[in-house]
Amino acid sequence: MKALIIDDERLARKELTSLLKEHREIEVIGEAANIDEAVELIEEKNPDLLFLDIQMPGGTGFDLLEQLDRVPKVIFITAYDEFALKAFEVNALDYLLKPVQSDRLSDAINKLSMEPSDSEETVSVESQEKKLGLNDQVFVKDGDKCWFVSLSNIRLFESDGNYIKVYFDGNRPMIHKSLNALDQKLDPRSFFRASRKHIVNLSWVENIEPWFNGGLMVRLKGGDKVEVSRRQAAKFKEMMSL
After folding, report:
1. pLDDT higher for 3 or 63?
2. Which residues contact 85 (CB under 8 A, 6 or more apart)?
3. What CATH number was assigned to the domain covering residues 150-239?
4. Of 11, 20, 68, 86, whose Cβ has the fewest other Cβ atoms within 10 Å?
5. Does residue 129 have a pLDDT over 80?
6. Domain boundaries, the chain
7. Cβ(94)–Cβ(81) under 8 Å?
8. pTM higher than 0.85
9. DSSP letter string, 191-242
10. Where do the H-state alpha helices sit in 21-60?
11. Which Pfam families does this chain map to (predicted)?
């Protein structure tokens, strides 16, 4: 597993690199000391894992994650226990307190073996010009709440002004992004632009009914209903083999 270490403290990076030598399954392929360096390095190296500091000059680790379309697995590194506990409300892989202890590092790395492999999805993504597919993970931040969410768990995206409402589990956080921009990044084999306001996850479609003016009404698992515009109905029927 290829990893990057992102921390503004040189000694902290050096110490973690030394500890990781005991874990042959982890290959450190680069380091970054700030957000700008990290974004460039992530785009260049396409790592599987980030060891990410939370508080850095010029921004936080969360600010970095918000700039990424596809988020690698993340193990946070922090000097502030209470900050980490408040922030990682759902699906954080792990966080390590500074100074990093070898036993806690081992515990965090062991969790990686429980995560699903992305190898097959990586091939698929590359062939689809790096479109985001169901096995990709995204970072969602709404106020003080943060989530790491697999796209397979997101059933619906809904435009709301300059924001998008993201539907997963019982959550509906808002992110500052346009639906058009998001539509360009998602794999069209898995996500469908139902209308000007909605993108649906096709794997969540449970029932389809004819609707007014040649449109369709789609019911998703869990009960959400989305109207497919007349313009998109023919394409939707073709994709769903109706």
Report:
1. 3
2. none
3. 2.40.50.1020
4. 11
5. no
6. 2-115, 150-239
7. no
8. no
9. EEE-SSSEEEEGGGEEEEEE-GGG-EEEEETTS-EEEEPHHHHHHHHHHTT-
10. 35-45
11. LytTR, Response_reg
